[in-house]
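Quick one, probably user error.
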């Protein structure tokens, strides 16, 4: 089972809406961290997800951004109101270093009709946590963030009937787009997660775990595209525009980067999976159309999801 971790930004929510049927068909379970206090777009996405029977997790105590969305707002406006009758939405609760377990226990008691996914993101007392949450039947998944939940901690939370998922960030963020190499290793977790004692795996797609509300001026445009190479190990291409020294002409820079992507797709024995997202990239190149950087990122996220789904269907 694949668990992509997304923030509730505009194009990520559009991605979920447009691909809901694909997500359901391939048993992909998105984890969504709200980042906007206006829940209109998020609610719309969740409605489509529910309609298409996509299992997903909605985090109720987000941490992203300088002013994270308030838990009380998410609980009142979404969990206890708009989404209360949705059958396929799990409450996600993030445990970090300063977390108070009593808050989690209260939620588990007060929302017994919801399944829960607990995200382990820096809390360290696994033995205490295990004792406090023992007996709650609505805990269905433990999600461990790689680097923030050690093996001994994980051992305390091993229990029959509760899935264990490991999320690992494969995207190596650079301060400037021009600094990305042509390609580099991304992850092998889609292959090795059983060796980690896990039932599923996840990542932050081609975005990474660093959250920024908006990007700065694009001195260089980069299109990031994952691919499978030797032994199905996953790497990522970074197609960079030729122009890198000025914030002007983002459309021209996009077409420069897109030209390199198209050349790689059309190269004999190319390793790029011909996803629906790639077909749309080819169409954009044919039309010489620049749809905006948010849309470009959405296409690369879609390609990544399609690629993993293709690998899972082939490997199963």
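Nope, works fine. Designed sequence:
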């Amino acid at each position: 089972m694949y668990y992509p971790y997304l923030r509730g930004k505009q194009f990520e929510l559009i991605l979920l809406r447009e691909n809901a049927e694909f997500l359901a068909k391939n048993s992909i379970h998105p984890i969504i961290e709200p980042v906007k206090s206006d829940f209109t777009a998020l609610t719309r996405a969740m409605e489509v997800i529910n309609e298409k029977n996509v299992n997903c997790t909605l985090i109720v105590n987000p941490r992203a951004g300088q002013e994270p969305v308030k838990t009380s707002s998410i609980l009142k406006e979404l969990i206890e109101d708009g989404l209360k009758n949705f059958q396929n939405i799990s409450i996600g609760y993030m445990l970090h270093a300063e977390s108070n377990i009593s808050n989690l226990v209260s939620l588990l008691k007060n929302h017994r009709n919801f399944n829960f996914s607990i995200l382990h993101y820096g809390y360290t007392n696994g033995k205490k946590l295990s004792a406090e949450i023992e007996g709650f039947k609505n805990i269905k998944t433990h999600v461990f963030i790689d680097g923030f939940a050690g093996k001994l901690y994980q051992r305390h939370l091993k229990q029959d009937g509760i899935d264990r998922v490991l999320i690992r960030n494969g995207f190596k963020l650079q301060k400037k787009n021009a600094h990305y190499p042509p390609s580099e290793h991304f992850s092998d977790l889609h292959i090795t997660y059983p060796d980690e004692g896990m039932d599923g795996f996840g990542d932050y797609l081609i975005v990474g775990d660093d959250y920024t509300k908006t990007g700065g001026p694009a001195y260089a445009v980069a299109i990031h595209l994952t691919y499978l190479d030797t032994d199905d190990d996953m790497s990522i291409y970074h197609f960079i525009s030729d122009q890198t020294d000025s914030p002007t002409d983002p459309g021209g820079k996009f077409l420069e980067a897109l030209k390199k992507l198209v050349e790689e797709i059309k190269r004999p024995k190319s390793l790029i999976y011909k996803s629906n997202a790639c077909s749309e990239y080819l169409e954009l190149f044919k039309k010489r159309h620049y749809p905006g950087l948010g849309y470009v990122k959405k296409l690369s996220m879609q390609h990544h999801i399609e690629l993993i789904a293709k690998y899972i269907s082939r490997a199963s």
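The first strand starts at residue 2 and ends at 7.
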